[in-house]
Amino acid sequence: MVDYEIKNDLIKTKKKDDPSGSRTLLRLHRALEYIIGFLHKLEDIQDDGYCSGISREAYEATLMKYHPWVVQKAAKLAMGLLPTKKGLVAKVCPDGNEAALKKAHEDFPKAVSAMRGVYEATQVFYKDNNLLEIP
């Protein structure tokens, strides 16, 4: 898709409301960077620790620079509503099965690693095609 849009000059590098697939994928790519940062830091907190702090840290290091002030404030406000680590894992494993909870704890780092691979490959592709700064 990106190659097609590049070859046919469909990516408008100055126009913010351009509905190209490349722009949409870039926004998803940026969101993936936030998710990686958030899930990576999840390992650093205890089960009773709130996810809001690590979410804010990940947001400030990734997505915040792309958002206007009002969106930044709204995002940080919403992050204050995030559950504890135990509560988040319970959303992933709603049945509360001990084996499933243990597996979820083991799988989070694996998921982060897989996401990082996808992020890095996309980052290189976008950088090689000078698309990282499209609005």
User: What ranges have pLDDT less than 50 throughout 5 or more consecutive residues?
Assistant: none
**SSE sequence, one letter per element:** HHHHHH
* Helix content range: 55-70%
The overall pLDDT, averaged over residues, is 90
Strand content is: under 5%
Structure, described:
The structure is a single chain. The protein has 135 residues and is mainly α. 65% of the residues lie in helices and 0% in strands. The protein contains 6 helices and no strands.
Q: Which features does this protein show?
A:
65% helix, 0% strand, 135 residues, mainly alpha
What is the compact description of this entry?
The protein is mainly α and 135 residues long.
Produce the secondary structure layout:
Elements: H1 2-7, H2 21-42, H3 52-61, H4 69-79, H5 85-92, H6 98-128
Helix pairs in contact: 2-3, 2-6
